[in-house]
Design a protein that fits this description.
It is found in: Cytoplasm. The chain contains 6 helices and 9 strands. The chain has 222 residues and is of the alpha/beta class. It is globular and about 50 Å long. Bound molecules: S-adenosyl-L-homocysteine.
């Protein structure tokens, strides 16, 4: 006798593989070209990272609520930010600010990065840990802290990705970026855009990119 089979096991497993392949097709059509990113998003079971009630929408190109007033970004934004961070070089050591449900961490892990991720909300971090385990991705180092300070003991990082919107660029994070490293973050308040920062021998190069909409970077732990 086979034990109870939930939607996360058989049924969804097969279906999600097809839906995921279609999602990746759309990402490619939208201009995402880095094979590591496309392959990672083909592999990570996004439906595992959202509440079961939302699982059927997990592969639509929309952002979804993940509890505690926070949201998981739409697949295109995750792909775009990961590509901007990694393209043209080894993934290396990456710091994420804003673990949320853990989906972005999962995509980074599957893209080959050595992942450290900070989340200020304890219950959300616990959920992320559970989600990553369910997706059989156990190698992310998750930290319950205010991400403003980064992780000075682990720095320097080849890449830093912030998945909440800051009103200014936290200097501690810039300091923890390796020479040649890149940081990608949403900047702004009501109006936000992606900012790419590259630490070059000539100094910090900043490029303003796509308009976006993220939840805010807040202070303190909760
Ligand atoms: N990357 C996430 C997206 C989460 S939304 C995912 O894939 O699901 C942004 C997250 O940033 C929220 O969980 C929010 O609690 C967190 N956050 C906001 N300010 C923070 C801070 N100062 N330090 C760490 N995390 C923060």
């Amino acid at each position: 006798m086979v034990a109870t089979v939930g939607p996360r096991a058989h049924g969804w497993g097969m279906m999600s593989e097809r839906t995921r392949a279609r999602m990746v097709e759309r990402l490619h059509q939208g201009g995402i070209r880095d094979e590591r990113v496309l392959e990672a998003m083909r592999r990570v079971p996004r439906h595992v990272f959202v509440d079961e009630a939302l699982a059927s929408r997990a592969y639509d190109d929309v952002s979804l609520p993940i509890g505690h007033g926070q949201t998981i970004s739409q697949p295109f934004t995750v792909a775009r930010m990961t590509e901007l961070l990694l393209t043209g070089r080894p993934a290396g050591k990456v710091l994420e600010i804003g673990t949320g449900c853990g989906y972005q961490s999962a995509v980074l892990l599957e893209s080959g990065a050595d992942v450290y991720s900070i989340e200020r909300l304890g219950p959300l971090l616990a959920k992320a840990r559970q989600n990553l385990r369910a997706a059989k991705l156990i190698h992310a180092r998750l930290v319950h802290a205010d991400g403003h300070a980064g992780l000075p003991d682990v720095a320097p990082f080849d890449g830093i990705i912030m998945t909440c919107a800051a009103r200014f660029v936290p200097q501690a994070l810039v300091d923890q970026l390796a020479e040649g490293g890149r940081m990608i973050m949403p900047l702004g308040d009501d109006e936000q855009y992606l900012l790419l920062l590259e630490k070059t021998p000539q100094g910090l190069r900043q490029t303003r990119l796509d308009p976006v909409k993220f939840v805010p970077l807040l202070s303190g732990r909760a």
